[in-house]
Specification:
Elements: E1 5-9, H1 16-26, E2 33-38, H2 43-54, E3 58-64, E4 67-73
Parallel strand pairs: 1-2
Antiparallel strand pairs: 2-4, 3-4
């Protein structure tokens, strides 16, 4: 999937992946896509909740080994 910015949240635990995701999305223009890579298993539920609460669509989420990859589009 094409993306405009990548956030490396590996090694960070809750709530840092979400806080850094929010900050990174603020730097993007509407419609741009952020890729987030996290190693925190809790980030799966957190990203879904974050997407629902903020209205930034969660386009995709996957698990690659011990890493979780998310693509969010800025609303």
């Amino acid at each position: 999937m094409n993306f405009d910015k990548e956030l490396d949240a590996r090694g960070l635990s809750c709530p840092l992946p979400i806080l850094k995701t929010k900050k990174s999305l603020n730097d993007l223009a509407s419609g741009q896509v952020l890729k987030v890579v996290s190693t925190d298993p809790g980030s799966v539920k957190d990203m879904q909740a974050f997407s629902n609460q903020t209205g930034n669509p969660l386009l995709s989420q996957s698990e690659e080994g011990k890493e979780f990859v998310f693509f969010l589009r800025k609303k």
